[in-house]
Amino acid sequence: MSRTDERGFTLTELMVTLVIIGLLSSAVVLTMRDPRESLVDGGEAFAARARAAQQLAIAESRDIGLWVSPEGYGFERYDGEGWLPETQPPLQQRTWPEGAAVSVAQGAESEAGRTRIVFDMTGLNGPLDVALSRDGHTVPVAIGADGSIMVGGNDAG
User: What band does 68 get if pLDDT is binned at 50, 70 and 90?
Assistant: First the structure.
């Protein structure tokens, strides 16, 4: 039996196959999104909902509260006797992005682990500074007393 009768792949064929598999794998990994919501996306979503609550307070001439806790945030409306939770989108209760640590600067009204600010019919509110952190990255969200909302130092509205 001579060596020319042997069947199989050559080293070159195997190397080309491995390179092709590697390129395809890289393309798949690069196009996949992180299953955890990005901090910037979470901060921008929070800011957009805060802006919607602010505009609703002005349009309906009533107080809308925004509460923030380490677990999430939500909105409430004042009915003349007390605070009632908002349940309609986009103002229903939300959780922070997976794995995010949240810190709230002192100064706003705090109660039962929640910090609350109130948007009034003039568009003014108490200031609120929230920072979302994960894996060494931090995204600040600042709601100014003048109604401005900034995400990472950029105007969100």
Answer: very high
56 within a domain of the structure (yes/no): yes
Q: Which of 41, 50, 137, 142 is nearest to 91 (CA)?
A: 50
Q: What is the CATH number of the domain that holds 124?
A: 3.55.40.10
Helices marked H in the chain: 11-31, 39-60
Domain that holds residue 66: 39-155
Query: What pLDDT digit, counting tens, does each position of 4-37 carry?
Result: 667 888 999 889 999 899 888 888 877 776 555 6
Block residue for tokens 């992180």: 34
Total domains present in the chain? 1
Q: Please name the residues in contact with 73: beta carbons below 8 A apart, sequence gap of 6 or more.
A: 46, 49, 66, 67, 93, 94, 96
Structure tokens at 124: 């003014």
Among 137, 146, 126, CA closest to 68: 126
Task: Give the single-character DSSP code of 65.
Answer: E
Locus of tokens 């996949």? 32
Tell if the pTM clears 0.70, that is, is over it: yes
Cβ-based burial of 131 (10 A; exposed 0-12, middle 13-18, buried ≥19): middle
Place of tokens 């109604």: 147
Strand partners, 139: 132
